[in-house]
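RETRY 2/3 - previous attempt timed out on the joint model. Re-submitting the same 752-residue input unchanged.
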Amino acid sequence: MSTGYITLIVLGLCGLGFFLGRARALATSRATGKKLHSLPNYYGQAVALFTAVPALLLMLAWLFLQPLMIEGRIGGMIPDSVIPEGGAKSLVMADVRRIADGLDALMVAGHMSESDLDAMRADFTDVRNRLGNVGVALGSDVPVPVFEAAKELRKSQNSGRFLMTIAVLGLAGALLVWSWVRVHPDQRARNASETFVLSLLIGASLVAILTTFGIVASLLFETINFFKMYPAADFFFSTVWNPQFRGGSDLGILPLLWGTLYVSFLALLVAVPLGLMIAIYLAEYASKPLRAIAKPAIEVLAGIPTIVYGLFALITVGPFLRDYIASPLGLGTSSSSVLTAGLVMGIMLIPFVSSLSDDIINAVPQSMRDGSYGLGATKSETIKQVILPAALPGVVGAILLAASRAIGETMIVVMGAGAAAKLGLNPFEAMTTITVKIVSQLTGDTEFASPETLVAFALGLTLFVFTLGLNVIALVIVRKYREQYE
Amino acid sequence: MFDAPKFAETKVTNNDIKIAARKVQVYYGDTHAIKDVDVDILDKTVTAFIGPSGCGKSTFLRCINRMNDTIDICRVMGDILIDGEDIYDKKVDPVQLRAKVGMVFQKPNPFPKSIYDNVAYGPRIHGLARTKADLDEIVEKSLRRAALWNEAKDRLDQPGTGLSGGQQQRLCIARAVATSPEVLLMDEPCSALDPIATAQVEELIDELRQEFSVVIVTHSMQQAARVSQKTAFFHLGHLVEFGDTGQIFTNPKDERTESYITGRIG
Ligand SMILES: Nc1ncnc2c1ncn2[C@@H]1O[C@H](COP(=O)(O)OP(=O)(O)OP(=O)(O)O)[C@@H](O)[C@H]1O
Ligand SMILES: [Mg+2]
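RETRY 2/3 succeeded.
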């Protein structure tokens, strides 16, 4: 039976469990004259949850583990002799899987029965041809062990699936009966559902945390490979970034890190003051109707795809800065420059700062303002001395979010600041950032297992650690200076 | 219900009118919260506002220092004169007015700053202290007057929000006193205080009366009787009766006043 059908049946049982549980709760309460501990629906819910949750979890685990176990065993059946020169075992295993699928297709098409298949031998039948008829194209004739492995794989899969159907439905049914029998007026059905909600929430948080760990682990793995091929000291302290196709590259992170920091700094220099002032205006001065229009209008900025900002940087801001500022002052002739990318990125980040800060300023209780006005403070004194300090943690959070966006931004940098890794102070020069180089190293033609490609992971991990550090620092600052209101 | 109170000095020592309100109307949107209120509040006198919950005591109090300006839907009509000057006149700057007419709010609202900074807030923005020592002195004096000094003197640098509810209330009183206003409006300043702190605050009110005029909203008849020389009774937005405290409590003219102070309405 397919997983879809099994799920449907389990859900059906779950629904049935709900009504049965509810009915039994009402009936026993009436029969014994005892008052129910919880509302009747909670009893139904408890039975339904016991029916569905463990069974579905079992199915998930089974679907995950079965292929691992079966393939491990089948892999052992394949002798080295059938592995082609220079190929890998995984390629042969892929063939095995495809043949197994093809055999299934043959069955479905009705060309063959189960006993035909048992009798079928790769050395007597033209397997390749027959599979070709059902749309499974094979590159070469099928060696006997591969075919036997495929047959075995099919068989194990089928029996595994059969066992799973029985186990899952059996578990659902058994728990349905068990929890139904347990329904009793004294049973704390309400608390059961509370526990369930709690584990659901914990599970959700775990997914997020585990994903982070997964990302770090995968980066770490490739980074270690990279450092086996390329000295870490050179990576961290060399001031030259010059990858070569034929090896012997200089892969120093410093120029990229500098570019990242420089562009982000300029972007924040634009976004933070503007965004904060917008937020203060919207929250404290603007009338309600104006705010209702202005806030979404500013948020539109956040919805523009970064590639569009990139175009804006490339064809408008870049040439403008070059023609009217850089060239006349003799500061440079390049239309891509750090300043271009910084300015445009700053504009993109304005709504991140303004919108969040506005919400946070609005959340400062009116009684704080009243207290300050009541002492004869003006509006701006109140904002400066009471509201902003009270809103500080949230505002710092908004700025941090903007900073993370700036550090991770790629498109605007490629199109605005160029792709030349350089260490320099002149904001009218082209520079580039870590993210841009990650993309260009991974999309290059070099072999995956070369330092030129793997450096992308080291760069990614450094970036990750860097932003993490930034967050920790901000957290410490906020904790130190926060003025908490109740 | 109402046992013989100890009346404060009923003799009004001063007859200068500090605040004069004429035909004051307040609307919150369509709600008519204050209807046609006329009242004269004397200088160097404590005036108590009493009345059942929701009758408009806080609303009227907030009119006197124009705190109602901060509420969008609130409209105030009529005249309120302080020292003969219409405070709703275009020429009057509400910010200046509020420095002169201080307020203690119904709910304690200390700033999320240190205790010291809370009290120093007003003196700082109005430049009342030239040196740090001056400021320290103002802070200490204000905290002493609000009966908070002993509890707070060792933790002046800790956040005001970390105090207990009653301590926060006294901190707000200290904060208001620190700016040395001419009129002090107190909206139920003792609602969260124990009897000892209440007695101390009442002592403070009596002391402030030497220099300022004080308006206090209270739900405690005894307190009104103890601290005030004049009492105003509000009911459903009307000023029902206004007169000497002794007369209001012993010989009310309006039967609504009588019912309220004897505990039949409210
Ligand atoms: N911000 C506001 N918006 C709308 N209506 C308000 C507002 N503040 C007060 N009101 C209304 O005005 C009337 C008077 O309220 P007010 O707060 O002055 O009463 P009060 O006499 O101080 O009561 P209490 O003794 O409970 O503090 C009430 O009906 C109240 O609902
Ligand atoms: Mg009130």
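DSSP finds ten helices and ten strands in chain B. Closing ticket.
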